[in-house]
Amino acid sequence: MTTRFARAAAAGAALAVAASAFAACSSKPETTPDDVITIFAPQNAGEGQDLEDNAFTKVIEEQFDVDLQFETTTWDGNSAAEKRQISLASGDYPDAYMLIPWVDQFSSEELVKLGSQGVIVPLDDLIGEDTPNLTAAFEKEPGFKELATSPDGKIWGMPAWNDCYHCSYPSKLWMNTEWLDTLGLEQPTTPDELRTVLEAFKTQDPNGNGQADEIPLSAAGGASLLAYLMNPYVYTPEMYANAEGTTPATLGTSDGKVTLQATRPEWREAISYVTSLYADGLIDEGAFTQNGEALTAKGNSADGVILGSVAVMHPWFVNSDLEDGRYTQYDAVAPLTGPAGDDAFWSAGGAGAAPGATFVITNRSSEAKQQKLMQILDFMVSYEGHLQAEFGVEGTNWVRPEEGDVALDETLEPNFEVLPQPGGEAFTNSWGPIAQFFSDAEFRNSQVTATDVYTPEGYERRLFEATTLYEGHESDDLFPYWEVGVTGETATELAPIQTNIENFVVQASAEFVTGVRDISSDDDWAEFQQNLTDLGADRYVEIYQEAWDAQR
């Protein structure tokens, strides 16, 4: 099986292999001179990003008198995770890792393990007078410091505090409103109404070209798709950025008890609904296997508009410069109301605000480098440093506000405006999301944003307004795993169980939907439950229940 779900399992296996290799490579490796700092980081080559030849890299090198050398990976979560694990296991790892949380990051368990083995160094004593901006950020947002503190009480790495409103509700559905108007249909509000709309998209030629080339519903990777379609039946956290099982995304609660959602009969009903849509040809066959590039190719098809709806966080699948204006055709659909209500998945403050770390310093780094790296981090946390790091050059990539400008949150004073960039040049001058260490709500929502949401300049407002459809639909069955710490020998026991179960549920979900497993078969359902039991499902739930009880 060559799907993303099989690759997720492979990544999980790679994680286990790498973890066993850490002990063998935890002795301090060879290091470079103090003025040469090596960093492992993802780069978006498709948007013109080259971290070695980047305007912000040069700013850092000049300001801190260092030579930065990068070991890079892609923004594809599976390959990025695998390359990071290989880098660590090799023993020839860099001075620091700077990651993107929704691509790949260190889990809390990894941090404690790597710290105990001496592979990464604690940051506690490096935070203080030399890091005034970071210290101020901790004071302004105590949750940031809490998130940075590992279950063992130490700060082994720095997370991304990204108070991203639209990221907080990642499981959205974007539907072609022009097609709805053409067919005389309204946006669906229930699973049955959605089926009716998708059937019309498939059979009634809404793009008017006389061909049956319409794709009623698509996705990339399947995570948002499953969460959006299943939540009307049972609380279903989105399993995005979870290729290594780094979060307990399959867990929920019921009457104060931790539950593995895939063991509930409501979960079977939910996956049955998704399966029926797939069997009727209403879901793109590539929805579970294709990456973002493949989805974008369909969204920007030279043959015309072929996508009826797409389950993704935001409508990045269509370019804004197409002459037919399809960029303006997609609007968010509110959560559907089903047997369980109209719940939406809430990700606890944004995709970036997740336990673990995007920045760590390894034992390859000398004391002088450690101090320099923390100063660089502190600069990126500062207001001016953040603008340059995330967005690029003033006057080229962003500008100061002018009179009459309106902030994204209209109750705030506007502070900056990001300028749209030509295709392939978005990240030539910046580190982009690598630098989102402290994007609190005030910073993010004070940016100047055009009031026309269907222009590139109004994109952030489009996301902001769409997300209001989802706010207030949080499920009572949500399990706040980000508040639950598991430490010591129990954490060691938990790690492989979690990896195996999380990867298995992701894979089995796709197998049920695509017919590899038969969700209508009691035997197949029983086998699935037995598979979960064999992987340690009972112990998985027990560990998190005990940790949750201790925390409450």
TrEMBL record:
Keywords, in A-Z order: Signal
InterPro entries per UniProt: Bact_solute-bd_prot1
Superkingdom of origin: Bacteria
TM regions (residue ranges): none
Signal sequence coordinates: 1-23
The name this protein goes by in its record: ABC transporter substrate-binding protein
Gene source species: Glycomyces mayteni
